[in-house]
Amino acid sequence: MTKIPLQFRHNGRDVAIFVDGGTNLLVALRELIGDMTPKFGCGQGGCGTCSVLIDGELHLSCLTLAETVAGRSVETLDGMKQGPNLHPLQRAFAENFAAQCGYCTPGMLMAAKALLDRNSAPSRADVIEAISGNICRCTGYEPIINAILAAAGGRASA
Amino acid sequence: MTRHRGRGTASINYPIGMNLGGDPSQALVHSNPSGKFTVALSSIDLGQGMKSVTRQICAETLGVPVEDVYVDTADSDTGPHCMGSFASRGTHRVGNAVMAAAREARGVMMEAAAEELEVNAADLETDGRGNIHVKGAPHRSISTKDVAIAAQFKQGKTISGRGIFLVPLSDVDPETGEMSPATCYAHACLVAEVEVDDETGEVAMVRMDSAYELGRALNPRLVEQQLVGGAWMGVSHALYETPEPYYPDPVHGPRDFVEYLMPGPGDICPHDIAVLERPAPDGPFGGKGPGEMCANPVLPAVANAIFNAVGVRIDDLPITPEKVLRAIKAQGGARPQARR
User: Fold this and answer.
1) What would the pLDDT profile of B80-93 be if each residue is shown by its tens digit?
2) Which pLDDT band holds residue A117 (cuts at 50, 70, 90)?
3) Going along A11-98, which residue ranges are E strands?
4) B335 Cβ contact partners less than 8 Å away, ≥ 6 residues apart
5) Is residue B84 within 8 Å of B41, Cβ to Cβ?
6) pLDDT for A23-58, tens place per residue?
7) Are the beta carbons of B74 and B263 closer than 8 angstroms?
């Protein structure tokens, strides 16, 4: 099959890869770029652990054709921490014990970032709505919601 | 259409571990060339926190900082035998094995330190910050790192220890069938409050209040985390999850993750948890472990709450809207019970 050349920005860095037609973005990120932070959960858009930001908007990378991100900017959890410092959301997740097995954490963090980037002072209902596409099978939603609210609070007061 | 509130309670007495095969778990502890320690286990941490708890237990027993202990888990090629992470046995069984292994390793470490400091090992103590010194004379001191180096390069010793936890098999009385399946028990009581819609049959959780007695909480934040999440696994089994909703007929069963019904962030309700600590005499530092018990009392409490709300007794899980509606219809309407 003919490979399709594809260029896009990945966490602020230009990348160029060749993909097979029909390759989804999750596979392109994990297998061709080597960014293992978006996780494969259900592969059907039902669990949210593959969530990434495309031009700042939350998307499920398992349901996104890789070709459609040509020339666009893709952000993953790998690009979240700023140098050696954890992102305030990552710190809040650690401080609030918002990860148990950790498999949903990358998607939760991306969904939370998408929310806080457009709404710096979300209500509890806003947070629930924002992560409603993400499943935590340890059912640790309470600490996750608290972490996101704490991160928003910290940002607002900073 | 009316939404009826109901409250139900359940209490449990839950065994830690089991009797089968003596329920053994083993641990090996050894010092690395850097003077830090590795705990080798084949036990698995799926997010329950066993890695953190065994790390704490090892550090506390050795008398070194928790940062100086690394726990290597989940590989039966590199770790000694473990029955597994189930039956609420991780903290208690594996923790006891780690404690025994760390105790033996500490003995070797203190002997090696004694040789370097030219004193009797019985006169030495650890400061918990990576040093070993003579009791009452903190300046006569050596770091655990220097002890490890001396043991490895000079004394020709391995600072290591082996540990196993094994329960004596309890024989079954042929007359009565009586036996002792466990060595200690944890306890809990949970109150669930629900709202039942008598038109749709839907059950919504309003709040939960619970008290758990689980020995000493070796890591209180991890205990709380497990109880918070585990309670929702209980709710999920009570109200949502099943691979075969019309069992034994497999029809209408979910075929994938999207069709499988699970609680989401919008379903959760406030949950107040009280943790009571009554250290287990045979537990590592008194720990028993929350384990499976965090989900168990929720199911009967929810079923009781539904009965309290609309007067229907459903003994088939999960308690789906269809079952609630059929039961309400069969008894000729909702019959709210006295508020408890």
Assistant:
1) 999 888 888 899 99
2) very high
3) 13-20, 51-54, 57-60, 73-75
4) B310, B311, B312
5) no
6) 999 999 999 999 999 999 999 999 999 999 999 999
7) no
Separation of alpha carbons B327 and B314, rounded Å: 8
DSSP assigned state of B123 = G
Q: Give the other-Cβ count within 10 Å of B241's Cβ.
A: 17
**Alpha-carbon dihedral sign for residues B279, A94, B57, B132:** negative
Contacting B with CB below 8 Å, chain A residues are 41-42, 44-47, 97, 99-102, 127-129, 131-132, 134-145
Q: In terms of pTM, does the model score above 0.80?
A: yes
Q: Is the ipTM of this complex over 0.95?
A: no
What phi-psi label fits residue B15: left (phi over 0), alpha (psi between -120 and 50 degrees) or beta? beta
CB contact under 8 A, B224 and A97: yes
Q: Are A132 and B266 a contacting pair at CB < 8 A?
A: yes
Two tokens, residue B102: 């760390």
Contact check, Cβ <8 Å, A139/B229? yes
- Amino acid in the structure at residue A98: A
Taking an 8 Å cut-off on Cβ atoms, the answer to whether B232 and A141 are in contact is yes
Nearest Cα to Cα of residue B167 among B102, B92, B98, B105: B92
Query: Edge-to-edge strand order for the sheet containing B131-134?
Result: B124-126, B131-134, B137-143
Q: Do B265 and A140 touch (CB under 8 A)?
A: no
B207 close contact with A: CB closer than 8 A = no
Give the model confidence (pLDDT) of B188-241 as tens digits: 999 999 999 999 999 999 999 999 999 999 999 999 999 999 999 999 999 999
Output DSSP code: residue A78: G
Looking at the complex, report in whole angstroms how far the Cα of residue A36 sits from the nearest Cα belonging to chain B.
19
Cα distances from B172 to residues B3, B106, B176, B182, B251, in angstroms, run 50, 38, 8, 13, 42
Calculate the alpha carbon distances from B267 to B246, B293, B305, B307 in Å: 24, 21, 17, 21
Report how far apart the first and last C-alpha atoms of chain B are (Å, whole number). Answer: 23
Among chain B residues, CA nearest to A103: B47
Cα separation of the two ends of chain A: 52
Strands A3-10 and A73-75: parallel
Which structure tokens are listed for B118?
Answer: 């030219």
Nearest to A139 among B257, B258, B263 (CB): B263
Look at A140 and B233 and tell me if their CB atoms are within 8 Å: no
**Which amino acid type is present at position B286?**
G
